[in-house]
Each structure stands twice: as C-alpha cells, then as structure tokens.
Amino acid sequence: MPEGHTIHRLAAEHLRMFGGLAVAASSPQGRFAEGARWLDGRVLSEADAHGKHLLLGFDDDRTLHVHLGIYGKYAFGEGPASAPVGVVRLRLEGGGWYGDLRGPNTCELLEPGEVKLLRDRLGPDPLRGDADPEVAWWRVGRSRTPIAVLLMDQSVVAGPGNIYRAEVLFRQGIDPRLPGRRLGARRWAALWDDLVELMAAGVRAGRIDTVRPEHMPEAMGRAPRVDGHGGEVYVYRRAGLPCLVCGTEVATVEVASRNLFWCPGCQPPAV
DNA sequence: GGGGTATGAAGAC
DNA sequence: TCTTCCTACCCCA
Description:
Blueprint (H helix, E strand, L loop, with lengths): L3 H15 L5 E3 L6 H7 L4 E7 L2 E6 L4 E5 L5 E6 L9 E7 L2 E6 L3 E5 L1 H9 L12 H8 L6 H4 L11 H10 L13 H21 L45 E5 L2 E5 L9
Antiparallel strand pairs: 1-6, 2-3, 3-4, 4-8, 5-7, 6-7, 9-10
Helix pairs in contact: 1-7, 6-7
This protein binds a DNA duplex through helix 6.
C-alpha cells in the first residue's frame, strides 16, 4: 500500500529494527548485488521519508533510496531469516530482524548531492514537520490544471497517492476537475489540513481510513465494506455504488492512466 | 496457464 | 499521450 503514510511507517520500522546496527545485506534476486555488497556490514544511522521516497542513511554518507512504485512491498520478520520466497531484491538483517524488499520501482545508493537533488524536486510532504503548505499553494493557486491532477504531482505535494487524493477531495466537497487557481487559498488550507490529519492517521493505523464515524456503514445500518486495500473509504474503488453520504452513484473516470473516483452529488461542479 | 488489476513515475514521442 | 518497468494475486478457463 505504497502511499506516503506507508513510507513513513517503513522509515520508523527500519530505525526501530536496525538503527545503530551493522546490518547484513544481500540481494537474493541478484539485481541489487553490487549495492547489497556495499551495504553489507554498514551501520544504519538514519531513516527518513519524503513523500513516497524512503531514504536510509548509512555510515560513510551514502543513502539507500527506495521507491516502491505501485507493486513494491516490504515484508519484515523476526528471528533468523528463512530462505527468501519469491523475488527479493534486497534483504537486510540485524538485531534479530530481517526485512525483504520486493518489486521496487527504485532501489539504489545515492551520494549526498544526489539526495539533495531528489528532495529539491519534491513538494512539501504533509507528514513532515518541515512542510510548508504555502509552497504548494504557490503552484496550485496559479495553475489551470485540475486539482485532482495537481494532488498526484509529487513536485506539488509529496506523499498523497490515488486513494488520498480521491478521499480528501470527497471530504472537502471539491469537484476533482476544478482548476487549482479556482480553489482559493482558504479551501486549499482546509484541504491541506485534512491531508495532514488523514495521512497522520494512516501512519498510526497502517491503512487508509477516511470515513467519519457518523458515516461508517455500521452507523448507517449497512454491512462494513470489504475491499482489498483494507481501509474504510468514501469513494475510492466504489464506482457505481451509492455514496455513503448522499446515495448518488460514485463516478469514475481515467485521468492520466489512473482511476479517479468522486461523488457527483457531494462534489458538484463549481458554477 | 492466461488475462486483468494494483496505492507510481520516468522517458520517449 | 503512450510505453515501459516492477511483482503478486485474483478470476477464469
């Protein structure tokens, strides 16, 4: 489930398991053999997340940069690691724990300068204390691009993905097609604050829940929904089902080869 | 065993 | 806008 909240959890988990320890590194799949050889025996000194990018700092100033993409996953286990199952790009072991990385979009070692370049092309991350929503507003507020597209642009806001964008727009009652410049500073501030709250809850829970208690299916006399992504949401992947709030059929359209979901009743087009 | 799907993004046009 | 990369899982035959 790789949206920003997942990556922040991964950073914290790495620190908890391997922080300050010399780790054993290997690449059972072989595609990161050279990097794993360099990592092997080095001490994990810091673990950070910026948007969907995981940055693990090791002694000697190099940084392991992991981006999960759509498919990437980490699986952690306690005790001596068993023979790797499936295609494991990188395995780290230490302190009685191990972590297996499969299917990442990116798994590479960066020099300090390269880390700075990476960070410089990312927008503020709602989960980071140093995030400044005004920096994002500077882009959003002068753009003709639909807000739904801007929210997926990691150089505008780093961290939200397809679920958070759909859900935060629903919660704020904003038509996804509304151009950024027509949003207004006030609605941007409210949207940002909601993102911060939702994503922080996602970090704590390890899943994306966005439905307010009064709209939970149980409270409405319906059965809880079962969905593969694991959280309770208003519109994401609910196309054709009745909106939990107004009953209108949830709509969907493909935008930039991603599925966008919204409720035409709760998120009416601005006149 | 094949096809479709998925929470992402870069690079080629 | 299209293609490509990456892996696992689900559904269907």
